[in-house]
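Help needed: design a sequence for this.
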């Protein structure tokens, strides 16, 4: 059993796609009868199914066209499916050829730079200043003991080596006396033996140092910080 649906005049107008004034005209012109309302005297709510049937049956077709509306009298009717029309084929237009890009001429090569007198003077002045800085730095390093002549260094090392040899050779009699007393030997024989062995050691060491000195460069490069 279906349940009746009760609506107001505004809701009926929305259901049928008309204005509220059209519903009022249907009510005044007796297109909507008393049995389409829930209360006597065309008052109360409107019975939707009865109202739609009365509008479909009692409405004048000329009035509907004059109002410029197409009254919706089927509540559950689905709107017709709209099939889109295929787009019209556009005529193909000829492609416009791209304009050729103008090639830019390569920039002319810069000419050789002229060596001016002013530039030469600036370079000479810079070289002179650098030379002065090197000389001053070397003198400062020599004063602080960081730099010395190679010949002076060799002379000092030879003097130190000679002094050490004299010290050891002068101590040989003391060594001989100690050994003679320890082993009960003649001190003279022990001293003679020590001096002979010491000469052999000194000769061998001198030959080795002479060979090593020949491989050492006469001039040694020293790195000195320059403060410009």
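Sure. Designed sequence:
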């Amino acid at each position: 059993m279906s349940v009746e649906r009760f609506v107001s005049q505004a809701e009926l107008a929305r259901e049928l796609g008309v204005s509220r004034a059209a519903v009022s005209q249907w009510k005044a012109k007796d297109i909507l009868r008393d049995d389409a309302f829930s209360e006597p005297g065309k008052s109360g709510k409107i019975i939707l199914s009865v109202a739609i049937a009365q509008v479909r049956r009692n409405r004048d077709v000329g009035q509907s066209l004059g109002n410029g509306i197409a009254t919706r009298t089927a509540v559950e009717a689905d709107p017709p499916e709209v099939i889109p029309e295929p787009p019209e084929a556009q005529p193909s237009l000829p492609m416009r050829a791209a304009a050729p890009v103008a090639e830019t001429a390569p920039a002319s090569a810069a000419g050789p730079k002229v060596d001016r007198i002013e530039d030469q003077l600036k370079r000479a002045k810079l070289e002179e200043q650098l030379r002065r800085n090197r000389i001053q730095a070397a003198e400062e390093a020599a004063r602080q003991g960081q730099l010395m002549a190679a010949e002076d260094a060799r002379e000092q090392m030879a003097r130190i080596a000679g002094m050490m040899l004299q010290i050891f050779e002068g101590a040989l009699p003391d060594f001989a006396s100690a050994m003679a007393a320890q082993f009960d030997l003649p001190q003279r024989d022990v001293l003679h033996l020590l001096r002979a062995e010491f000469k052999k050691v000194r000769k061998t060491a001198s030959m080795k140092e002479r060979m090593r000195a020949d491989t050492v460069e006469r001039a040694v490069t020293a790195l000195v910080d320059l403060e410009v």
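Residues 74-83, 89-94 have pLDDT under 50 and may be disordered.
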